[in-house]
Amino acid sequence: MDEDLLFNMLASIEQLEVFGLLWCPSGDSYNWTGEGTAADAWKALVLQKESLKEIRLDILRGDGDYVLEVGRLKWYTLDRFEKLEVLKVGEFALQVLREKWRSRQPVPPANDDGFFEGLFPKTIREVTFWEPGGELVGSMRRFAGAVAQGEYPDLKRVVVAPPEKMSDRWFPGWPGQNEWVGASGDLQRAFARSGVVFEVQTERVYGIRGPFWGRQPSVF
After folding, report:
1. pTM
2. 29-58 as b/e, with b when 16 or more CB fall inside 10 Å?
3. CATH at residue 82
4. What is the mean pLDDT of residues 162-173?
5. Does residue 17 belong to any structural domain of this protein?
6. Which residue from 47, 58, 36 is spatially nearest to 7, judged by alpha carbons?
7. pLDDT at 169
8. What sign does the CA torsion over 141, 86, 58, 118 have?
9. CA distance 126 to 65
């Protein structure tokens, strides 16, 4: 995805409510062009911050070590997306916000336990994290505490799941999956106190195509 094309596209649309992007720089049908980074995708979305209700953003890392360019991003919280209700985000795109959050702390944090607190706007109803690292379990616990204190009154569902991408077999797992599975019981109980459903999904199959494409998946 050319970052200039993404900016121009979003700038030309009025009142965009739903945005989904699967950005695969190493895929057969894609090219990693120019200086495009995960931070550029977040910056482009700010152009529609006043109307977006749903964001699905998954940026897949290929064999290369692509630069996050966190310095290009001036913010790390999504609270400026005042109508956002549904957020589904992959680990690599989430890492941009996390690294920016770390850089903005007065004292370098020993862990990322406070990352999710204050990340979302008050309107958020559903959150899905694709392939999150196990080091974010502590942050999820603190997020559940913030929800229990009434910080996110509209929240109904939080999901941790495998990536939504091309696959022709059962997904075997992701780094950090075991940590999430081990903590799932405690997290389910913590969120349930606020009437929020918490779920860890450990396998998913789409046939030979991912859900961002229109073709029906293969029948198993």
Report:
1. 0.84
2. eeebeeebbbbbbbbbbbbbeebbebbbbb
3. 3.80.10
4. 65
5. yes
6. 47
7. 54
8. negative
9. 31
